[in-house]
Amino acid sequence: MTIREMCDEFDVTPRTLRFYESKELLYPIREGQKRLYTRKDRGRLKLILRGKRFGFSLEEIRQLLDLYDPGNLNMAQVAKTLDVARHHLADMTQRRDELNTAIAELESYIEIGDKHLVNPTPIKL
């Protein structure tokens, strides 16, 4: 695939693909100034974008991709991915819980403010 085809398929910019290449996440075939992406590059980009969506750093993603070993059924890669995923899930869950608490508190203050507008009385926060 050309850089344009990759951009269209994955909804990324050429700059993004070049950046991932500079970070040694993608290895397109170079023909002069032209970059050609293989099936392996497409698979790697899918994993990169999924990892980013899950909050993985580019360095974590690079390390996980470097563990690719089909001869060993990718056991090391899967084990490390699960370890990193569990860590990120715990972090995301904690942030979600904190956000839910803040939302509930803000809703309560809005309700108090709405009641005050209808029946002005001293507000107890």
Describe the structure.
The longest helix has 44 residues, at 75-118. The chain has helices at 3-10, 14-22, 39-53, 58-66, 75-118, and strands at 29-31, 34-36. The model has no long low-confidence stretch (mean pLDDT 94). It is mostly helical and 125 residues long. It is elongated. 68% of the residues lie in helices and 5% in strands. A two-stranded antiparallel ribbon has the order 1-2. The protein has two domains: 1-55, Multidrug-efflux Transporter Regulator, Chain: A, Domain 2; 67-125, no CATH class.
Outline the secondary-structure elements.
Elements lengths: L2 H8 L3 H9 L6 E3 L2 E3 L2 H15 L4 H9 L8 H44 L7
Helix pairs in contact: 3-4, 4-5
Give a quick precis of the structure.
The protein is mainly α and 125 residues long. Helix content is 68%, strand content 5%.
Q: Tell me the number of strands.
A: 2
End-to-end span in angstroms?
A: 60 Å
| Arrangement of strands in the largest sheet | 1-2
In percent terms, what proportion of residues is strand? under 5%
Number of domain modules = 2
Low-confidence stretches: none
* Main sheet properties: 2 strands, antiparallel
Return the structural class.
mainly alpha
> In which range does the helix fraction lie?
55-70%
Overall residue-averaged pLDDT value: 94
Topology as a string of helices (H) and strands (E): HHEEHHH
Shape verdict: elongated
Radius of gyration, Cα only, in angstroms?
A: 23 Å
Please work out how many helical segments DSSP would assign. 5
